[in-house]
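Handout for the seminar on molecular recognition.
Each group receives one record of this type.
Step one: identify the two inputs.
Step two: read the structure output and locate the region that could contact uracil.
Step three: write two sentences on what you found, then compare them with the reference statements printed after the record.
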Amino acid sequence: MRIYDIIAKKRDGFELSKEEIEYFVNGFTDGEIPDYQISSLLMAIYFSGMNDTETLNLTMAMANSGDILDLSAISGVKVDKHSTGGVGDKTSLVIAPMVAALGVPVAKMSGRGLGHTGGTIDKLESIPGFSTILSKEQFIENVNTIRLALVGQTANLAPADKKLYALRDVTATVDNMSLIASSIMSKKLASGADAIVLDVKTGSGAFMRNEDDALLLAREMVNIGNGAGRNTIAVVTNMEEPLGNAVGNALEVKEVIDTLKGNGPKDLLSVSLVLGSYMLLLAGRTDSVESAMDMLLKTIEDGSALRKFREFIEAQGGKGEVIDNTELLPKAKIVMKVTAVQNGFVKAIDARQVGRASLALGGGRETKESVIDPAVGIVLHKKVGDSILKEEVLATIYANDTEQLKQADELLQQAFELSEKPVEQQQLIKWVVSKSGVEKV
Ligand code: URA
């Protein structure tokens, strides 16, 4: 086999065989095929596309390029949940203890934030003492004993994807559905779960801004997951405005604790309940979304989800007292209120701009190497559809630096759009995609 022939075949629009895909993925990962030939192949894929079989074969080749986590020592159906990334998206931290409190094992690997979007690992690391690095044995033991463990991705998880993504990033070949779907799913398949619930975000703060593209991505990923023998469902959800009120690591952990105490924002709870319900469905714990929601809500009402969250924090070295006293979380030195300049209604809160404001405060990462400040961020006091009076507080900024505060303030002012006329609230759940088809919600 020659890489030259594979490039020419794809350039001319033909389907690549499983062997050809494995050849280029393995050859590139091992350093035997140079960047310039893979760059050319990526551009050929970008223009000629890949069909479902090729996309699945690419995903499997990337997943198999490194460690495959073996979760067979954990009893029960292991269901993973993955979000394509958003602003204020802390659903994993709300869902995981609820689902685990019901006895369903949650053995999860999560990522860090990049750019305007946040990451679960960064949020957890804002809890004093919390470690997101566990040995494989400890990880499995924690899931077997308390049904919940959450760690960062290991260095050798789908290394082919790491190399290919870095090349796509500098060759203008990121934006191809097959390449995006296979990249995300290779890491999920290597993480070892039996079933997967995907939260595909759409809107200004999402990777897929356009709803049609989000739906297409959801279908591709569901095809891959089911093709790989993992029961997979995707829910397409709104990311025009941030989810919940808090954006910023420690602020989001506080909001998770409030939500598990039954005092969280409605939108965050609603999306968490829907995603958590599909996890229970895939785990075989119930056969309807309605009964799953009742089961999950009960874990908040009876305090079992909150107890599970404390247990989880302590099992990973964190200070469980943060549950009773959120003042123990990192706190910013400067607190500033942003007020409305007119009476009216909130028409839009651009999630990307809010994410950028948090990034400007140091709450996010400009590059993979950036160090983040866990204490800073933004709390929104008004959401789309709310009425507002002149001088009423729209948001609070938490900062540790006056220059960063100034930048965040400017970005936040641009994020809010007010209207004189009443505005409808945004629809949170848009589509559910499963192997039986696409359902409009
Ligand atoms: N996230 C990924 O992991 N891969 C992509 O290609 C795009 C987003």
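Reference statements: The chain has a mean pLDDT of 97. The first helix runs from residue 3 to 11.
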